Amino acid sequence: MTDVVLDGVHKVYTGGVTAVRNIRLRINDGELFVLLGPSGCGKSTILRMIAGLEEITEGDLWMNGGRANDLPPRDRNVAMVFQEGALYPHRTVKGNMMFPLEVSGDDRAEANARVMELARALGINTMVDRLPRTLSGGQRQRAAIGRALIREPSLFLLDEPLSSLDAGLRTELRVEISALVRSTGTTTVYVTHDQVEAMTMADRMAVLRDGVLEDVGTPEQIYEDPATVFVAAFLSSPPINLLQGTLWTVEDEGLLIDFGPQRMMVPWDDPRASSLISHQGQHVTVGIRPDTLTPIAPGTPAQPGTVLSGQVRALEFHGHEWLAYAEAGITTVDPTEVGRSAAPATYEPERPGLRDRLKDLLGRPSQDEPPPEEHVPGHHRRADLIFRIAPGSRPNRGDHVALAVDLDRVLFFGADGRRVTPVHRHQTAPPRMHRPGHASQETRAHDTGAFGTPGPTGGYGTTGGFGGAGGH
Ligand SMILES: Nc1ncnc2c1ncn2[C@@H]1O[C@H](COP(=O)(O)OP(=O)(O)OP(=O)(O)O)[C@@H](O)[C@H]1O
Q1: How many independent structural domains does the chain possess?
Q2: Could you tell me if 199 and 320 lie in one domain?
Q3: Which of 138, 161, 428, 432 is deepest in the core (most CB within 10 A)?
Q4: Is the pLDDT of residue 426 over 70?
Q5: What's the pLDDT tens digit per position in 24-35?
Q6: Nearest CA to ligand 1 atom 25
């Protein structure tokens, strides 16, 4: 068993491609840790550096408290499974699974018993005498996982092992892989670009973009309390509404978010008001998940500044729910563009007399234009407000709808794409099975911080909490 720390790890490939930028991350002993991100974000590179298959350009890799940058792969006790798990074509499933034990000279009868036990756990015990070419893709992956796990590695690395399988098999296997590695207590690092796979499997996960660590935490933490616009959008299906507004303070009332034709109000007693106030006069991105908007009948009393409206343009049936798309005339933010460069939030809008501007905002007609967009980093467009329809109250296309916003669940991001309010990363992974003698959850309860959230030092002679991205 092992824990892994990446301390300021940086990777530049020959030819100059920077694949990984200053990653600081702790993967705890016995944890199922997922690396999630879009294609090309550096997930596989990180995995390969942990395996010793790729050189680390800068920074340190620690395994079980020892610096491992120069440790040969064979001395790391790591097993790895790829998208197409490699099997020897002329060996049966059993032959493939036996191979690592034969190499290490294990007792044959004992090895045979272990292979059969693992094959049963993987659901391939009835096909151990078959050759790989006679197996389905899912069965081949099970065999590859069996071959990797048979010699009880300290660290199990999986690189998109399910991505070539169909949706049904993926669901089935992700449950089985999670159960298997949890029952063995093997520290596991799992790479995927599939948010559902990440959310359903991970004890904790890291979200990457362009080689930069955007966020680290449990799936619940990252979903409910994302550190950046990119993370909020990457972990959202149906997509989160990301509305671009400008923030103004209104004495006696609160913080007004001006979306141009519509606005929202965050009252002064809202716990986020004290963080938001520093964005006075600046662009903010307001993240509203579709289930945070509730259609209400016209005229229903609501707290001022908590209702948005639009005209229904499309309806979509998703089996378990209906979604509606309403044209609201609000500029939305493209999360793939925001916060991409290291550009700080430098936008300073022109300030006509503030008092005049507020008077204007609070009483003006809805067709007014928002502040000029060319000042804002990122890409912006007008898009629909997406909301979930309550059962039995389906609007028709063309209807005007009023949508009550659950203000407590709204997320606020600055122009640089980072959350305006601090993100919380105090808890570690949920309790899980461990073999006797392994570190308990409590002893592993030193969690990472992301973007300046509190995180104690992880030891190994480094400063600051692991898990936050540096220099982003
Ligand atoms: N051997 C290599 N030489 C040069 N550049 C490379 C090499 N391997 C990867 N890269 C580049 O490094 C970046 C990160 O690649 P990596 O494979 O780690 O990403 P990934 O997130 O795993 O992507 P995917 O999900 O598509 O596998 C990409 O820009 C890629 O083109």
Answers
A1: 2
A2: no
A3: 161
A4: no
A5: 999 999 999 999
A6: 39
